[in-house]
Amino acid sequence: MTGAHEIGESVRRWRNDTPGCAGRIHLNNAGAALMPQPVIDAIKAHLELEISLGGYEAADSAQKEIVSTYESVAQLIGTHAGNIAVVENATVATAQALSSIPFEAGDIVLTTRQDYVSNQLMLLNLAKRLGIRIERADDLPDGGVDPDSVNSLIQNRRPKCVLMTWIPTNSGLVQNARAIGEICAGAEVPFILDACQAVGQLPVDVESLNCDFLAATARKFLRGPRGVGFLYVSDRMLKRGACPLFPDLHGAEWLGPDSYRPVENARCFENWEFAYALLLGLGAAARYTLDVGIDRGWKRSGYLAKTVREKLSELDGIRLLDRGQVQCAIVSAEIQGRDAGDIVKALQDRGINTSTIVREHAIIDMDEKSARTALRISPHYYNTTKEIDDCIAALTEVLTRCGEVGKG
Hints:
By secondary structure, the protein is an alpha/beta fold. The chain has two domains: 136 residues, Aspartate Aminotransferase, domain 1 (Alpha-Beta Complex); 253 residues, Type I PLP-dependent aspartate aminotransferase-like (Major domain) (Aspartate Aminotransferase, domain 2), CATH 3.40.640.10. Strands 2-8-7-6-5-3-4 form a seven-stranded mixed β-sheet, with helices on both faces. A four-stranded antiparallel β-sheet has the order 11-12-15-14. Helix 9 links the parallel strand 6 and strand 7. Helix 12 runs parallel beside helix 15. The protein is globular, with a radius of gyration of 22 Å. It starts with a helix and ends in a 7-residue tail after the last helix. The N terminus and C terminus are likely disordered.
């Protein structure tokens, strides 16, 4: 980052671009970040077009902008437009990727102990229906998957694929995705990477990650709308003929009564029906992120998260839960004797948005930490240190009123 004056001007501009900043302190960017004005304008403009022209006709007239969305998303993660499929969200993206793997009874899927709850549920259902087996790699002592464990399991168990969540939803841990991708590439094992919390927060380059699939959403740190996301599909998977289990007329061509042919790029993972206003919002969010500069945003959000952790550590009765050699702008903390949901509601009543982590969303990790609920605070580059101070002051006031926590 450059000098303090320049950063101050930049933060001011980012906040002026974000109408939601005027009404609340929004520290729930790991849930859904506030959309900047260009994203809002792109969505509204297309909805107006649908109102005046009709849905199909509006999509036809917006072809240039639609193409630009694929190009902007591709630029954001270091690939080409033909490797991008637009889908509803990261869970759908992961499901589409998994469905392209020809599983048979006894096949192994290798994952981590920090995987996203929906991904784990999908694997459990595959185990129930198809008889696959789930293997989870060990963690490093300070948190995050152990690459040596992954390598050993790949060599000894020969999994059908590896599925990993880069940043789990319940903590600031950043797993070593690059190391896992390198291992998978060397062993020629397909690597599915859930980057839902990573895209828009930290630099993403799919080539250096060596991932075969990358799943993401628009609504989190990318600052796009809810209800849209994307799936990256590598050239090597496309050359193998990767195709989802249930293609539709957009992703495949019906050649005859008993034959079909998938399209030859990542669009085979899409469905024909789109919320085109949201798709265009996704493109605007990608361009806005590129304009901010992902390295710059990553440094600033990391600084703000570090500030949150330092201030929380000064309070009695609060236990920080984040682990790992690299931590991101998701801060998780258990509050002794209190349900985090009650704290989140009390903060929300004071105009501050945070969120709750519950055990059921990360059973393995939360059980290891002996925590049932936790407070999640997730700043982004457009937040300010004053907002952090106000949040900590409000939290202290809420807990002190209940006789649980005072300043240490």
